[in-house]
Design a protein that fits this description.
By secondary structure, the protein is an alpha/beta fold. The chain is built from 12 helices and 8 strands. It folds into 2 domains: 308 residues, Thiamin diphosphate (ThDP)-binding fold, Pyr/PP domains (Rossmann fold, 3-Layer(aba) Sandwich), CATH 3.40.50; 44 residues, no CATH class. Strand 5 and strand 6 form a beta hairpin. Bound molecules: thiamine diphosphate and magnesium ion.
Length: 375
C-alpha cells in the first residue's frame, strides 16, 4: 500500500474589520443602520457599566460572587445582535452583554449572582438558556436545542458559548461532533480570553488556533477579532445564514482577553504579569467602537453623556429591584422532581415548620412571591 498525503480542503479565515484605532476596512464593513449602531453602542456601554457595578456590589458584600466580562462585551453582543428573537441563545457565564441585549431583566442577572434561582429563569417569551457554569455544558445544550430546531423543520438556529478552557472538555467535542454529524443549525462561539482561571491558553491545547478544531469535525471554522463588534456581527451573520439554509454548524473563535479577575474569588497577580495585560488595553472593544461611531457622526459627546445618565438610572433601578426581591424559600422543594418524593415531602414539612417557628411566627418568603420587581 502506498503512503501518500491526504489533502484537507479546509482553511481557517481570520476576520478583523475595525482596527484598534477605530478605523474600518471599507471592503468588509457590514451593513448596519444608524439605529443598529446606536443599539449596539448602548448595549455595549450598558454591559460595561453593569460589569463595573457588579464588581462593586460583590466587594460591598451585596452579592455572593461575580465573574467579570470586562473587555469581552463585543464577543457576546455581536452574536446576540446577529440572531432573531426566535433563535436560541445559550450563554456560559461571561455573556451579560448578549443576555441583556436579548432581554434578560438586569435584576434577574443580579439575583443569579446573589444565589437566587429566579435569576436562572428566563421570561416566558424568551428562547434563552440561563447562565451555565459547568464548563462546556453549553455545547451539549446547544446541540440538543439545535437538534430540536432541525426536527421542527423551521429555519431557526442556536448560538452557544464556551471559553478557551472549555475546548478541552469532552462536552465540547461530543456536542460539536454531534452537531457536525447531524448537520445541526448550531453556531459555537469560543470566547478565547487566553485564560482558564490560572491556566494560560498555550498550556491548554497544542493547536495553533482553536478555530481549526472545526476541520476535524468537518465543519467551517473562523477566527475573529473578538474585540471587534463588526467582525463578530459579520462572522455570526454568515454562520447563521448558512445554518438557516441547512448548511450545518460553524465554529467561531473570538480572540479576546480576560482583563479582570476570573471571579471575585481570584487574584490574577499570583499567576500573570501586568506586562501581559497592558497591550490589550488599547484593544478595548468599547473604546474602538466609540471612535468608529463618533467619526461616522452617529453619536456626539452630548448624546453619549445622556445615554450614560440613562444607563446609570437603569442600573440603580435594577439594584433596587434585586435587593428588594423577597425570595420564596420553599421554592427549591418544587423544582427537584415533577412529583415530590416522600423523603422530600418530609424535609419540606420540617423546613416549613422551622420557618414558622422562627420566633416571629413568620414563614419568611413562604407566602406568595412578587416576581414583578424583576421583570
Ligand atoms: C465541568 C467544570 N469543571 C470545572 C469547573 C470550574 N471552573 C469554572 S470556570 C473554569 C475555567 C473556565 O475557563 P474558560 O473555559 O477559558 O472560560 P473563562 O472562565 O475564561 O471564561 C473552571 C475550571 C466548572 N465550572 N465546570
Ligand atoms: Mg478562558
Amino acid at each position: 500500500m502506498p503512503r501518500k498525503k491526504i489533502t484537507l480542503d479546509n482553511t481557517i479565515d481570520s476576520l478583523s474589520i475595525l482596527d484598534e484605532k477605530g478605523k474600518v476596512d471599507k471592503k468588509l464593513e457590514p451593513k448596519l443602520s444608524k439605529d443598529d449602531l446606536l443599539k449596539l453602542f448602548r448595549a455595549m456601554t450598558l454591559a460595561r457599566r453593569y460589569d463595573e457595578r457588579m464588581l462593586k456590589l460583590q466587594r460591598q458584600g451585596r452579592i455572593g460572587t461575580y465573574g467579570p466580562a470586562l473587555g469581552q462585551e463585543a464577543a457576546s453582543l455581536g452574536p446576540a445582535f446577529a440572531i432573531e428573537e426566535s433563535d436560541w441563545y445559550v450563554p456560559s457565564f461571561r455573556e451579560p452583554a448578549g443576555m441583556l441585549y436579548r432581554g434578560w431583566p438586569m435584576a434577574r442577572l443580579m439575583l443569579w449572582w446573589g444565589g437566587n434561582e429566579i435569576g436562572a429563569t428566563p421570561l416566558a417569551k424568551m428562547n434563552d438558556m440561563p447562565i451555565s457554569v459547568p464548563v462546556a455544558s453549553q455545547i451539549q445544550y446547544g446541540a440538543g436545542i439545535a437538534w430540536g430546531l432541525k426536527l421542527d423543520g423551521g429555519d431557526r438556529v442556536a448560538v452557544a458559548f464556551v471559553g478557551d478552557g472549555g475546548t478541552s472538555e469532552g462536552d465540547f467535542h461530543e456536542g460539536l461532533n454531534c452537531a457536525a454529524t447531524f448537520g445541526l443549525p448550531l453556531v459555537v462561539v469560543i470566547q478565547n480570553n487566553h485564560w482558564a482561571i490560572s491556566l494560560p491558553r498555550h498550556k491548554q491545547s497544542a493547536s495553533k488556533t482553536l478555530a481549526q478544531k472545526a476541520i476535524a469535525y468537518g465543519i467551517d471554522g473562523i477566527q475573529t477579532d473578538g474585540n471587534d463588534i463588526l467582525a463578530m456581527v459579520e462572522a455570526t451573520r454568515e454562520a447563521v445564514e448558512k445554518a438557516r439554509k441547512g448548511g450545518g454548524p460553524t465554529l467561531i473563535e473570538a480572540v479576546t482577553y480576560r482583563m479582570g479577575v476570573h471571579t471575585t474569588a481570584d487574584d490574577p497577580t499570583k499567576y500573570r504579569k501586568d506586562e501581559e495585560v497592558e497591550p490589550w488595553k488599547p484593544k478595548d472593544p468599547l473604546v474602538r467602537f466609540w471612535k468608529y461611531i463618533s467619526d461616522k457622526g452617529v453619536l456626539d459627546e452630548a448624546g453619549r453623556e445622556k445615554m450614560e445618565a440613562e444607563i446609570t438610572d437603569e442600573i440603580a433601578e435594577a439594584v433596587q429591584a434585586s435587593e428588594s426581591y423577597e425570595p420564596n424559600l420553599m421554592e427549591p422543594f418544587d423544582h427537584c422532581f415533577a412529583e415530590r418524593t416522600p423523603a422530600l415531602e418530609q424535609q419540606r414539612a420540617q423546613f416549613e415548620a422551622y420557618l414558622n417557628g422562627n420566633g416571629n411566627g413568620k414563614a419568611s418568603g413562604s407566602a406568595s412571591v412578587s416576581h414583578s420587581a424583576v421583570h
